[in-house]
Amino acid sequence: MDDFDFDTLAVRAGTARSQFNEHSEALYLTSSFVFESAAQAAARFSGEEEGNVYARFSNPTVSAMQSRLAALEGAEGCVATASGMSAVLSLVMATLQAGDHIVASRGLFGATQQLLGTIMAKFGIETSFVPATDLNAYREAVKSRTKLFFIETPSNPLTEVVDIAAVAAIAHEAGAVLAVDNCFCTPALQQPLALGADVVVHSATKYLDGQGRVLGGAVAGAKAITEEVFKFLRTAGPTLSPFNAWVILKGLETLRIRMEAQSANALALAGWLEAQPGVARVFYPGLASHPQHELAMRQQKSGGAIVSFEVEGGREAAWRVVDACKTLSITANLGDTKSTITHPASTTHGRISAEARAAAGISDGLLRIAVGLESVGDLQADLSSGLRGR
């Protein structure tokens, strides 16, 4: 389906009908598959014959979801995983070994920072964290054993925008691979592979599902990389369930429509927040005030649906805003059609050190909103009471 547009791929790619010729994609709830003979079983297990073997690493519903996401990202291959973090883990474990080195942008999701900086260090894999937008810092961090560059753009929660093409050039000059966490934008707004990245990582839990229903993750990119990730998943088993794959598959059908509508709401809310008393700063790539606004508008189709802002008065004032919300959901998840609000310093980034939070620019007064599909006026009214100290 290479000649089809994004919207057609979102509803048609990966479709494979069974003997019943169903219109909607089938959900295959089975742990294993039956073979016609011992010889066929042996051929399937060895890979000499294509076909499903065992649901830890092969299932028609999961395969459909993988094919559709690969088509949307323009990837040669895709491997679905149980969660976004298992996607990051699978990529690192499949492609690196003890003694290897990672260069990562400092503004990563808190759990990703923990995984790369603390857990992988136990296995002899070192990570150097650099300022997300400082290209010289990426160059200076390169070591002889640097194998992977890992960036998240826009970043969580400050929406820093990394120049993907520039970092890709630095990584490739060093003989390394560039991985991009594309969770905030999704392929509907940004396609890192087209900008020079080698692999994309997703928390499908977020916008790919789009309604906060299931967990899921994915690694999509060059075939040589996704094949190694598949080998790891086949043995280690951080597998996406068929039901979750089916839910995400259906979510992909409305991805562009949702992303465009939520981005429009986010832009309107961000502009309103800039004018509110007690708001020290707003972080949103779609605003002209954002430091990387021009870059964002070059490599993204819009500013996205995440708005972060810093209130005067530190944690006490920030918590007051959160606690006053009656419409926005107080939860750390994002990507839902329902708007959510969280205090990153005590939730998503609460497990990293205070020094690391300070280095990443995550203050006690920072709040993050994942803007959904509600009326922007209702969201503004919900935030007003907390901002006014009522």
TrEMBL record:
TM spans (from-to): none
Keywords linked to the UniProt accession: Amino-acid biosynthesis, Methionine biosynthesis, Pyridoxal phosphate, Transferase
Modification sites for N6-(pyridoxal phosphate)lysine: K206
Pfam short name (any one): Cys_Met_Meta_PP
HAMAP family: MetZ
Subunit relationships: Homotetramer.
Function: Catalyzes the formation of L-homocysteine from O-succinyl-L-homoserine (OSHS) and hydrogen sulfide.
Protein name as annotated: O-succinylhomoserine sulfhydrylase
Organism: Azoarcus indigens
Phylogenetic lineage: Bacteria, Pseudomonadati, Pseudomonadota, Betaproteobacteria, Rhodocyclales
Annotated gene: metZ
